[in-house]
Amino acid sequence: MSKSDQRLQDEGSRLQVVAAGATAGLISRFVVAPLDVVKIRLQLQSHSLSDPLSQVDLRGSPIYKGTIGTFKHIVANEGITALWKGNVPAELLYVAYASIQFTTYRSTTLLLQRVFGKGKDKGLPRSAESFISGATAGATATVTTYPLDLLRTRFAAQGNDRVYASLRRAISDIRRDEGVRGFFRGLSPALAQIIPFMGLFFAVYEGTRLSLGKMELPWGTGDATAGVVASVIAKTGVFPLDLVRKRIQVQGPTRSRYVHKNIPEYKGTVSTIRTVLQREGVRGLYRGLTVSLIKAAPASAVTMWTYERMLNFLVSKGEKANMKSG
């Protein structure tokens, strides 16, 4: 556990932060992969089991009902390995995203401290500093890794009839049929979502981890608990934008070939929100929220817990190496 008088952005060298962030993203992704596939399938479902009128034009699309029901349906019809569809681009995404996120967060914080000063009587308020650093880190990581996010969504949306045979083929097909812009479908709602999400996440996390870190909690460490609390609060606030991003990501010439073959045609962010509200109501914007929150807890807890431990290990190892060389 980090020392109580230290803060996340003050710890470790740049290389240590990159290594710790990459390790945290890799492990976290593998743990929550099945939940992510279930979430994406529910988010892309524009029809409902409780609304017969929405089932008129299914075109062979499955009807998922709830997190457990979706799990069972996927396993029964596609096999257990289907729960890890899109895992290769997702692993690359999480490793790259986590590394860029933590590095940018630390660099931005140090820059703010140089510009505005550091200390109790100097500089920005802690919450403002964490918000700005978190938002900057989230935006930078999102833009840089967005093509991987789109590929992850499209692979997770595939049913038994494969749209893309491989990652290499997917990249080739998208570039040929949709151009470079095809890799960035849905970037606008992604940025609109990630900036407040990461800002809120890091602000809440930094504000709670020091106090929780001093507590002896029966279910785990204070760092992990702070990560869970921060993620749930931030995730709920921006979830409609996450759903809009997913639906725009599967637009294009392959829109009718995924497991949900009746995905409507969407244009921009505002237009998509309007269409979902008209056809599915407010609840339509929150499809998959339950599994998203379930996913957020282990994902954030594993990410932050692994990051903290890995960073402490690397820092400790570096200090020992310096002592020997000295």
The number of helical runs is 9
CA radius of gyration is: 21 Å
The largest pleated sheet is described as: none
Helix % is: 55-70%
- List low-confidence stretches: 1-6
Q: How much strand? A: under 5%
Overall mean pLDDT stands at: 85
Q: Say how many strands there are.
A: 0
Shape: globular
Cα distance spanning the termini: 27 Å
| Alpha-beta content class | mainly alpha
Following the backbone from N to C, one meets helices and strands in this order, namely HHHHHHHHH
Name the features.
68% helix, 326 residues, disordered N terminus, mainly alpha
Characterise the protein shown here:
The chain has about 325 residues and is mainly α. The chain is about 70% helix and about 0% strand. It is built from nine helices and no strands. Helix 1 (about 15-45) crosses helix 2 (about 65-80) and helix 1 (about 15-45) packs across helix 3. Mean pLDDT is about 85; it is low at about 1-5.
Task: Give a concise summary.
The protein has 326 residues and is mostly helical. It has helices spanning 14-44, 66-78, 87-116, 126-156, 167-178, 187-213, 222-249, 269-280, 289-325. The longest helix has 37 residues, at 289-325.
